[in-house]
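Researcher: Here's the sequence for the chain we discussed earlier.
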Amino acid sequence: MTAIVLSPEELAALRRRTIVLVGLMGVGKSSVGRRLATVLDLPFRDADNEVEAAAGRSISEIFAELGEAAFRDGERRVIGRLLDEPPHVLATGGGAFVNPETRALINAKALSVWLKADVELLARRVSRKDNRPLVRGKDPIQVLTQLAEARYPAYAEAHVHVETGDTPHGVAVDAILTALREHAKAE
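Model: Thanks. This is the structure I predict for it:
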């Protein structure tokens, strides 16, 4: 699954705080996050799923019926609740970390990891399904390029930055573990 071997001490250190994955849609926060949680033997939570459960409707429905501002407000509240739970791996929606209040909450209570990938790769990934309200009916490369320009300054405030590519999820997990190991040494 992963080539990185963590010492018991490193593993214990990584299990002390929630690890929050941030980045643009399609970068693999949920799919890679599940695998990272398995490697660390931590629970996995997906903020989008938690928001849907709390609202009793899909994210697409929330956007259509209430708008993005209402979605972001609910998302912030849900993430705040999740950060009060015992340590876990948390995948956030692409816009969550852009909200200054949500970003401050995450950075104060957890370890934030920015997963970054090439916009063209992300466009290919998000085009496979029609479940992304921000790109529905639009050119994904154009939308993702605009989102990158707007969101990268906020994502840059994450504790750890990890470049990912068009590789198996295990490679991304190894890159995250390596970056977390280096971050822990620097603290």
